[in-house]
Design brief:
By secondary structure, the chain is α+β, with helices and mostly antiparallel strands. It is built from four helices and twelve strands. It has helices at 41-54, 73-78, 114-127, 157-181, and strands at residues 15-16, 23-24, 30-31, 36-37, 59-61, 68-70, 80-82, 89-91, 98-100, 105-111, 131-134, 148-153. Helix 3 (114-127) runs antiparallel to helix 4 (157-181). The longest helix has 25 residues, at 157-181. The structure holds zinc ion (3 copies). The site of one zinc ion (ZN) has 7 residues, from loops.
Length: 182
Amino acid sequence: MMDACTNHPTVKALSVCHGCGKPYCKSCLDEGKDFYYCKKPSCQELFRLENARALLPPRVNCPRCSSELELSDGDRASKKFHCPECDAFLDFTVDPPIALDNKDYTEVFSSMNQGHIALLKSILDDAGLDYYVTGEYFLATDPLIQPAKFYVLNDQVTEAREIVKKFSANLFTVTRRKDLSD
Ligand SMILES: [Zn+2]
Ligand SMILES: [Zn+2]
Ligand SMILES: [Zn+2]
């Protein structure tokens, strides 16, 4: 039986903090990739380091053409991105990383709007689809100079097109409402 939370004596602890080893309840803990951490500054620093380790480095080499690629924060977290040099889709979620052929993927959507891009990504993530976004290389510092393109695994194109259809319809409704109220 787990002890009570160190901060809340009447609440049962969920786990011990990996930094200080004391028991805490759910609301007092942050969940890292491997461990829980409490809100104490020294333990939060360990939490931050654990999350940083879970990201890819800012630069990696393409496993197919060896070009050095500069990654956006999104690429570093998702670990799946496109090599603009050899046009391969790269999967760094596995070790060693693999290069996938672009003919296995089909374009389903493109946009210059960073808000739309982020929104569609979260929808596709929720749907569990295998997708890549190309042309996002300047997202971190500058506005997009070319549209970001969404590619989905060929087997999932029908499902993805349905999602994109609904997504685009919603965007159009929102835009229209805004136009009318202006
Ligand atoms: Zn702690
Ligand atoms: Zn607590
Ligand atoms: Zn490459």
